[in-house]
């Protein structure tokens, strides 16, 4: 070897790093496969929720019954209020003034006054009720017919019912004062005040039912939150294992959401049964009471739409409660490596 020859350095052999092999390539999964997997997991989650509710029947029944009682109270009051509103509908348009004449006014003069008053502003029509007609009507409605027949004379005065063309309070008061100043008029009574008071009570009842519905809906959500929280704690180890093998929060959350919806939906169905049973139980006495007032109305049950809306609304509350419980407590369960 020549002295000046430069030594040949051994070249380092380049070693390539092994490529990281992906465990599962989502690109190879078609959209149809993903949808089938998603649908199968939803089906399995719903079946698992029903099985767990069936496995703990006593506690599940108590939770469902609490939800049903909480929802049946405002629902029943709302149905009764709807019946009251239907019975009184149109009464305000039947506003009239009862004008009682002096006892010595004859029937002929009573007819003349009724025709004269038609010329007064804001009077649409008049109706004459003679003393004899008033007595017969009072005997039929009061039940004191034998007592009235024993009296030596008819104690009821002649009456003219005046129907105004407006229900404005100012107009009615002005008309009442004008008729009270007419000759041979003894008393003028405005027979619409009690109807207005009734409508004010109905409006107050609507607001009370709305407030009660919000309060009890919040109570239903809290009941479901507590129930789902206990379920999460009892399945802590199972959730830990699922997360270790790569289960996502959505995968873990789904069965609990179906459980909350099932609680709420079942509670809504039981609430419908309770309300319908209560209306059936109250129907007889209420119909008898209405018949005493010569009313053809009858107590109606829940509307067909309410029979569907109630379970769905309750199921939505259960779903909301489950979502809140899972969002609050599921993040606290994380595997420690």
Mean pLDDT over all positions: 79
Note poorly predicted spans.
1-13, 15-27
| Portion in strands | 5-15%
Spatial order of strands in the largest sheet: 2-3-1-4
Order of helices and strands: HHEHEHHEHEHHHH
Cα radius of gyration in angstroms: 39 Å
Helicity level: 55-70%
The separation of the N and C termini measures 62 Å
Our count of helices gives 10
What is the overall shape? Answer: elongated
The total number of structural domains is 2
Task: Count the beta strands.
Answer: 4
Biggest beta-sheet profile: 4 strands, antiparallel
Structural class comes to alpha+beta
Write the layout of secondary structure elements.
Elements: H1 31-55, H2 57-88, E1 97-101, H3 107-117, E2 123-129, H4 131-142, H5 145-149, E3 159-164, H6 169-180, E4 185-190, H7 193-234, H8 236-244, H9 249-292, H10 304-329
Antiparallel strand pairs: 1-3, 1-4, 2-3
Helix pairs in contact: 1-9, 2-7, 2-9, 7-9, 7-10, 9-10
Family: Belongs to the ABC-4 integral membrane protein family. FtsX subfamily.
Domain ABC3 transporter permease C-terminal: 213-326
Membrane topology: Multi-pass membrane protein
Tell me what you see in this structure:
The structure is a single chain. This protein is of the alpha+beta class and 337 residues long. Helix content is 65%, strand content 7%. It contains ten helices and four strands. The chain has helices at 31-55, 57-88, 107-117, 131-142, 145-149, 169-180, 193-234, 236-244, 249-292, 304-329; strands spanning 97-101, 123-129, 159-164, 185-190. Helix 7 packs across helix 10. It is elongated. Keywords: Cell cycle, Cell division, Cell inner membrane, Cell membrane, Membrane, Transmembrane, Transmembrane helix.
């Amino acid at each position: 070897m020549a002295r000046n020859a430069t030594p040949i350095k051994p070249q380092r052999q380049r070693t390539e790093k092994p490529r990281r092999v992906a465990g599962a390539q989502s690109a190879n999964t078609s959209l149809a496969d993903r949808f089938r997997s998603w649908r199968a997991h939803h089906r399995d989650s719903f079946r698992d929720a029903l099985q767990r509710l069936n496995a703990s029947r006593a506690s599940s029944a108590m939770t469902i019954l609490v939800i049903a009682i909480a929802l049946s109270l405002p629902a029943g009051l709302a149905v009764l209020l709807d019946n009251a509103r239907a019975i009184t509908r149109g009464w305000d348009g039947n506003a009239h003034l009862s004008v009682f004449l002096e006892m010595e006014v004859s029937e002929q003069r009573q007819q003349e006054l009724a025709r004269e008053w038609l010329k007064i502003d804001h009077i649409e029509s008049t109706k004459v009720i003679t003393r004899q007609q008033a007595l017969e009507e009072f005997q039929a409605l009061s039940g004191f017919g034998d007592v009235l027949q024993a009296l030596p004379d008819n104690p009821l005065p002649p009456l003219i019912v005046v129907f105004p063309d407006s229900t404005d309070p100012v107009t009615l008061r002005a008309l009442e004062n004008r008729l009270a100043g007419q000759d041979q008029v003894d008393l003028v009574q405005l027979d619409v005040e009690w109807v207005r008071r009734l409508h004010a009570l109905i409006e107050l009842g609507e607001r009370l039912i709305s407030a009660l519905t919000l309060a009890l809906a919040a109570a239903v959500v809290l009941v479901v939150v507590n129930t789902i929280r206990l379920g999460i704690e009892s399945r802590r180890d199972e959730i830990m294992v699922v997360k270790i093998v790569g289960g996502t929060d959505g995968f873990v959350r789904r069965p609990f959401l179906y459980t909350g919806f099932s609680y709420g939906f079942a509670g809504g169905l039981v609430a419908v049964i309770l309300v319908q049973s209560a209306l059936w139980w109250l129907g007889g006495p209420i119909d008898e009471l209405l018949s005493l007032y010569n009313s053809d109305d009858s107590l109606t049950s829940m509307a067909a739409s309410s029979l569907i809306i109630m379970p769905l609304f309750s199921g939505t509350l259960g779903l909301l409660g489950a979502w809140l419980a899972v969002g609050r407590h599921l993040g606290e369960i994380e595997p420690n490596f």
